[in-house]
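User: What would this chain look like folded?
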Amino acid sequence: MTLPDLSGMTANAFVLQQATSLRIAVLTESYPTEVNGVAMTPGRLVEALRRRSHHAQLIHPR
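Assistant: Here's the prediction, encoded as structure tokens.
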């Protein structure tokens, strides 16, 4: 068994490199067109998760 070359790599970078993407569903009943912090937060959370290469889905009422 050979170990990966960790020279010049921070612990966080190594963990991120080894991480797998998650499938995440966020459910909310408060979503824009309402304009308040509670309605905006789920969308921001999903976008942040997607930027980190996770498969995030937002489920909300019409």
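The two ends are 53 Å apart (CA to CA). If you want, I can go into more detail on any region.
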